[in-house]
Specification:
Elements lengths: L1 E6 L7 E5 L5 E8 L5 E6 L4 E7 L7 E6 L2 E8 L7 E4 L5 E4 L5 E5 L5 E8 L5 E6 L5 H17 L2
């Protein structure tokens, strides 16, 4: 499954549209005011399907991932030099980035690819997500949103 993740121009709040290969909107992501960063993911029917909440007062950026009201895991940026790395406490996945932070790979505990993420040059943040198993689309999307939010927080 391939998804196109495109940020819309807004002032103060992040909003993203996620399209499939037929250029249909399959998810919409909206930022909400909260103590930490809060991003809600809606399906094409307008139903809330996932939420990311940035934890405050942490040394390294950390996001909690929710499906419905259930906490399904966290994603935390690791202290690295040269290549960004994120650790997930769900699914046994790991996220590794390229030196320039344009390309990322998500792998499982055996090193098998779960998804790849490529950033395109555009006026807004635009990513192409290539997901191996369609069932992982929401989890991969949450990871990409957390990575983008962490990059945005650095300016």
């Amino acid at each position: 499954m391939k998804l196109l993740f495109k940020q819309r121009f807004t002032f103060g709040l992040d909003t993203y549209d996620i399209y499939n290969e037929m250029d249909e909107t399959v998810f919409t992501v909206k930022s909400r005011f909260a103590l930490g960063r809060k991003l809600e993911i809606y399906d094409r029917g307008g139903n809330l399907v996932g939420t990311l909440i940035g934890k405050v007062f942490t040394f390294l950026p950390t996001f909690e991932m929710y499906v419905g009201d259930s906490l399904v895991g966290t994603i935390q940026k690791q202290m690295t030099f040269f290549k960004p790395k994120f650790i997930l406490d769900c699914n046994g996945w790991e996220v590794n980035g390229s030196f320039w932070e344009w390309d990322y790979s998500i792998v499982d505990s055996t090193g098998k690819a779960v998804a790849t993420l490529t950033q395109e040059f555009d006026w807004t943040d635009t990513y192409i997500l290539d997901i191996v198993d369609d069932a992982d689309a929401l989890a991969v999307l949450m990871i990409v949103i957390a990575i983008d939010a962490e990059k945005d927080s650095r300016g």
